[in-house]
Design goal:
heterodimer; A: mainly alpha; Rossmann fold; five-stranded parallel sheet; 16 helices; 5 strands; B: mainly alpha; 2 domains; 19 helices; 69% helix; globular
Chain lengths: 343, 495
């Protein structure tokens, strides 16, 4: 009898877990971040991309895979999600590497400035809720979220069940492929209209907050262990945009000088686009969406420069004439970059 | 550690696995340890109180037993009465100190200050120990049962300590008499698949009652009762009816989870609720509502006072006294006393008015065995119970008066102008709340005539499992739990 009971219980528990996993996918909020991660992590695998772009919103609207494709024939995907702390980025890189064979990994380092131990819940969820359950996700939850919230990340229905009142057809029939053509990139179309107020050059150096330094080191170590090429960047933004914030380093410019030092010591390229504004012809007033984020015109300029850097320093094939990549040309024709260049 | 928490879920799984893995003779030790752990998870220092109660009543049992052996009848009886008296005094004194001292001391202060001679009685700062009224009554039942020779004195202190502290029913009942529960700790409980499954079903039903129904109704009830002067007429009537079902589902849920958890391990606890809102009289209501407390008061207070065998006046006195004390048992406030008193008065009035009622029935030739007449009785009883609930729920006597005053107001427009959606529940939540009350009543109705669990067990496995999975889905989706979800937290304005 005991054996029968155990057998039945196991089958029942499996059914319950299955039902919960279906409920989770229905109830998790359907942001653009969800569709891009599902597409980039699980629906397009193998050697889909030469380059993967990681980070927070600065990267999300900073480097455009469609421009990299159009100008250099490089395949890439933008995995950045809004407000993504650097510890989450580390686990997301690991998730990407599970299904993608040693692409060049580009990480935007804006979030190194976070001094809180954990990122904001909504932002962390942008990434973690949309990663399939695995040991990597479990470890990410343990290390990137406060203790009392962990069960809610592990079983998202605990967090989202009250959405039963607002569920729509989209929650049940969510088509993540709709926006795949953008390859994870999305930039604003506003124009900031102001100069960068205080981005004066400085040679000063300050330490990174302990937790973000730990995770930057982990990312560097991971690149050595796995053997992928790592590039660190900082997309243009007004350093003043975080001034007065209680959970951010006071002088990001000095922090990035420290990053440059770390990168140099580890023989890893670091491009701080804030130091290259005039070189790439970036006009803060016209090329920024707001004080922190590039707009589509600025992103195109930064991407163009970054594409040249990739071409010059890495042996990447130009796939544009390869028939296997025909869809990339079609995708480009739908992209934001194509629409602005048409005007 | 609340029953509807992940902590309890994990605790229970561990307890059950180890329980069945252990040798039968060792199991009571495991249950005793885990029961104390369960109790101490609220506040470790409470353990001292429950241990004191346990030691006192255990010793009373042994001493009464020894007194039984004395040949001199008079001396034997005298000693036995002394031990009962001491056990009652010590236990009730602890209960009084922790639950009632401050209420009585401030009441006395108020009375004195009313007569312009203020006095000061030092207050006693403490946290009300969880479940103290429940376990104290359970422990006292043992002393009295041994005195009455309904049970033999327990010789094994550990096993007796388990009877007082058994975790499923420790903090909110059912209050078990020693003659029902104590001997069960000697039984050998095998792992019985059907029994375990039945226990889990009861736990599941309890979770639905608590998380889906009671806690949802509570949102509306709290909105209105915490600010009664802002609401009128139907708004208060809805909140009061909702409270009737909230407290029923909450308490019934707790009892069902307790019974289910015990049943998984092979213990049979008493049923505490028997479709109470289908009662046709207040008397019947008390045979269906919190049955184990009613039985306790009947056995250990009402019958010893003489019940209804010493004349009408004495009967009325006994009923009123029992219900006043029962009211006070629920908490040290004037409102609980009024609530208890109302239930006493209802029954006395019911008895006094019976001849008039009979005359009306006879004169107008009203058929009393028709559905409509029974429904009328059920509704009248429900209305009386509801009126008393106002005092039970209101935060103070003043609030209760505001509620009664504001309720006497005819405002049917609240159903049309959207006011009922401003009582804390969204339109969809309100519909769900009303539907869930319907489901509870439906299940209660079916439970009156048959055992739903045995009926269910005869259905094909596909249907049963679909039902179980649906129940889990209902709890997960419609339960009130978790950290809450604020859409704004997720609206990330990137641009």
């Amino acid at each position: 009898m005991l054996r029968k009971a155990i057998g039945k219980s196991i089958i029942f528990i499996i059914l319950v877990v299955f039902v919960i996993s279906i409920l989770n996918s229905i109830f998790i909020i359907k942001t653009g971040h969800r569709s891009k991660l599902i597409e980039g992590l699980y629906n397009h695998t193998g050697n889909a991309y030469d380059v993967v772009l990681m980070g927070s919103s600065h990267m999300n609207g900073g480097i455009d895979p469609n421009v990299l494709w159009h100008q250099e024939g490089i395949t890439s995907y933008n995995y950045a999600t809004g407000g993504q702390p650097i510890d989450v980025t580390y686990y997301l890189i690991k998730e990407v590497l599970k299904n993608h064979n040693k692409p060049i990994v580009v990480v935007d380092l804006y979030y190194l400035g976070l001094t809180d131990e954990y990122g904001e819940e909504g932002y962390v969820r942008n990434a973690l809720d949309n990663i399939n359950f695995s040991m990597n996700k479990l470890v990410a939850i343990i290390n990137c979220t406060p203790r009392q919230d962990r069960k809610n990340y592990l079983v998202p229905i605990i967090k989202y069940h009250d959405r039963w009142k607002e569920l729509t057809k989209r929650d049940f029939l969510y088509d993540t492929s709709e926006s795949y053509f953008a390859k994870g990139f999305e930039a604003g179309t506003d124009k900031y209209g102001k100069e960068a107020s205080n981005n004066v050059l400085t040679t000063g150096i300050i330490d990174l907050p302990p937790k973000t330094e730990e995770y930057l080191t982990k990312i560097i170590d991971l690149s050595h262990q796995v053997g992928f090429k790592l590039i660190l960047i900082n997309t243009p933004y007004n350093y003043d945009s975080t001034s007065g914030s209680t959970n951010w380093v006071e002088e990001p410019a000095k922090m990035f000088n420290k990053v440059a030092e770390i990168a140099k010591n580890n023989n890893i390229p670091f491009i701080n686009y804030n130091d290259k504004l005039s070189e790439i012809g970036l006009d803060f007033k016209a090329d920024m969406n707001n004080s922190s984020h590039l707009n589509i015109w600025g992103a195109t300029k930064v991407t163009a420069d970054f594409g040249e850097f990739l071409k010059a320093n890495y042996s990447l094939l130009d796939h544009r004439s390869d028939n296997k990549y025909a869809q990339w040309n079609i995708d480009y024709s739908h992209s934001q970059a194509a629409s602005i260049s048409a005007h | 550690m609340l029953f509807n928490s992940i902590q309890f879920f994990l605790f229970f799984i561990i307890v059950v696995f180890v329980y069945f893995a252990l040798n039968h003779r060792m199991r009571w030790i495991w249950l005793l340890l885990t029961s104390y752990y369960f109790y101490m998870s609220w506040n470790p220092s409470y353990a001292v109180l429950i241990a004191t109660s346990t030691i006192v009543t255990f010793l009373s049992g042994l001493l009464i037993d020894r007194a039984n052996g004395i040949h001199d009848q008079k001396k034997s009886l005298g000693l036995k009465k002394l031990w009962v008296f001491l056990s009652l005094t010590i236990n009730l004194s602890i209960l009084f100190m922790f639950k009632y001292y401050n209420f009585f001391s401030t009441s006395i202060e108020r009375i004195f200050s009313y007569f312009h001679s203020p006095i000061y009685i030092p207050s006693f700062d403490y946290l009300l120990p969880v479940g103290i009224s429940f376990y104290t009554f359970q422990a006292l039942s043992y002393t009295i049962d041994v005195y009455r020779k309904d049970v033999k004195a327990e010789k094994n202190f550990g096993r007796y300590a388990l009877f007082v502290s058994f975790f499923p029913q420790l903090v909110a009942g059912p209050i078990e008499k020693s003659k029902n529960l104590l001997h069960q700790f000697d039984e050998k409980h095998l792992f019985d698949y059907v029994r375990v499954k039945n226990g889990l079903l009861l736990i599941g039903w309890g979770l639905i009652q608590k998380m889906v129904v009671a806690d949802r109704l509570a949102i509306l009830v709290n909105t209105v009762y915490n600010n009664p002067s802002a609401y009128k007429g139907f708004e208060i009537a809805i909140a009061t009816v909702f409270f009737a079902f909230q407290i029923y589902c909450d308490f019934s849920a707790y009892s069902d989870i307790a019974r289910g958890a015990a049943e998984v391990m092979g213990f049979r606890l008493s049923q505490n609720f028997k479709s109470p809102y289908f009662s046709k009289s207040i008397k019947e209501f008390w045979r269906r509502w919190h049955v184990t407390l009613g039985a306790w008061f009947k056995d250990y207070m009402y019958i010893p006072l003489g019940g209804n065998r010493r004349g009408r006046l004495r009967y009325y006195y006994n009923i009123t006294a029992v219900f006043l004390v029962a009211g006070l048992w629920h908490g040290a406030t004037l409102n609980f006393i009024i609530w208890g008193a109302l239930h006493g008065v209802y029954q006395v009035m019911g008895d006094l008015l019976k001849p008039i009622k009979d005359t009306i029935v006879k004169t107008f030739k009203i058929k009393t065995n028709t559905f409509s007449y029974k429904l009328f009785q059920v509704l009248v009883t429900f209305a009386l119970v509801n009126f008393a609930w106002i005092f039970f729920r209101a935060s103070s006597f003043t609030y209760a008066l505001i509620i009664i005053k504001n309720m006497l107001y005819f405002n049917p427009e609240v159903f049309i102008n959207g006011s009922i959606y401003k009582l804390g529940l969204t339109p969809k939540d309100l519909i769900l709340a009303i539907l869930s009350i319907g489901v509870i009543l439906g299940v209660n109705m079916l439970q009156r005539t048959r055992s739903l669990r045995s009926k269910l067990s005869k259905q094909p496995i596909g249907l049963r499992w679909s039902l179980y999975l649906s129940a889990i889905v209902v709890i997960l989706i419609f339960g009130i739990y978790g950290p809450g979800y604020n859409p704004e937290q997720f609206v990330y304005f990137q641009f």
